[in-house]
Design brief:
Elements (H helix, E strand, L loop, with lengths): L38 H18 L5 H6 L12 H12 L2 E5 L5 H9 L2 E5 L16 H8 L6 H19 L3 H13 L2 E4 L2 E4 L2 H4 L4 H7 L4 E4 L2 H6 L10 E5 L2 H8 L4 H8 L23
Parallel strand pairs: 1-2, 3-6, 5-6
Antiparallel strand pairs: 3-4
Bound molecules: phenylalanine and fe (iii) ion.
Fe (iii) ion (FE) binds next to α5 and α8.
């Protein structure tokens, strides 16, 4: 079998992605190899889970909370096949193991066919609070619960299809900002107040509180064009959060042909993380619509 090469990591990073790419399939999926996890790794997963469950309490959106029992088993790192039974029934999504970060085309191809890549390795003990690359805990705890929601499940598949299209239109940088500000760092307005659905926040110890209560970040009503114009930082808390009204509204706003939007955006200057722009509609911290 032909082996997958490690992906090129974006940005200034010169660190090689962690993970065993030599034993991956050409589409970058691999075996979870569950029996190879050590007791220490199972224990670390349990502690990460227990801590994060307390932090997301009252802060994560109801769709996320409702699906948590499917991944929050207290025996340690779940077998992906076990997660896939209820997940497949709920929305037809499946979790597949990957060695770590994978190239965009393979990533979007998996999403387009309702397969979500989850990194098979867990962070080390000295990375308990913060890990640079996405690991099993971020991918599984942060992303997978939302895939149980039918509307969000459809959004993620559309994202995969849109990614493959954006590649041909040389618009991947624009689309990656939309991913960042929704799938990774999105907030949703609910009758109970602002709630989190972004995986990057939900798997972070500190940002779950910061994003909802700190007076520092700029929280604005979601607009796809505004999000795609906004650069982002990967090594600090976010300075701008986009707030959606509902997952239906998010799906509708993005279920249009982005081709003309990409053309418009290519001629507009990008905005810095945290920059305020004319037309921004601020969402107060204590918002409850
Ligand atoms: N509608 C987008 C396009 O035409 C695809 C897309 C859907 C992108 C949902 C992101 C999220 O390219
Ligand atoms: Fe992620």
């Amino acid at each position: 079998m032909q082996h997958a090469d490690p992906p090129v990591v974006y940005g200034e990073s010169h660190i090689q992605p962690r993970g065993d790419y030599a034993s991956a399939n050409p589409d970058y999926t691999c075996e979870q190899n569950w029996q190879a996890y050590t007791p220490a790794e199972h224990d670390r997963y349990r502690r990460l889970l227990a801590r994060q469950l307390q932090h997301v309490h009252g802060r994560a959106c109801p769709e996320f909370v409702e699906a948590l029992p499917h991944i929050a088993i207290d025996t340690g790192i779940p077998r992906f096949e076990r997660v896939n039974e209820p997940l497949g029934k709920a929305t037809g999504w499946q979790v597949v193991a990957v060695p770590g970060l994978i190239p965009e085309r393979e990533f979007f191809t998996l999403l387009a066919t309702r397969r979500f890549p989850v990194t098979r390795w867990l962070r080390n003990e000295d990375e308990f609070d913060y890990v640079v690359e996405p690991d099993l805990f971020h991918d599984l705890f942060g992303h997978v619960p939302m895939l149980f929601d039918p509307v969000f499940a459809g959004y993620m598949q559309a994202f995969g299809q849109g990614g493959l299209k954006a590649e041909g239109l040389h618009a991947l940088e624009l689309l990656s900002r939309l991913y960042w500000y929704t799938v990774e760092f999105g907030l949703v307005d609910t009758a109970e107040g602002l709630r989190i659905y972004g995986a990057g926040i939900l798997s972070s110890v500190g940002e779950v509180d910061h994003c909802l209560t700190s007076p520092e970040p700029w929280r604005i009503v979601f607009d796809a064009q505004r999000a795609m114009r906004t650069r982002y930082k990967i090594d600090t808390y976010q300075e701008t959060y986009f707030v959606i009204r509902s997952f239906d509204a998010l799906f509708k706003a993005t279920n249009v042909d982005f081709t003309p939007l990409y053309d418009t955006l290519r001629d507009l200057p990008s905005l810095a993380a945290g920059e305020h722009a004319p037309g921004d509609v601020q969402v107060p911290v204590a918002s409850s619509a």
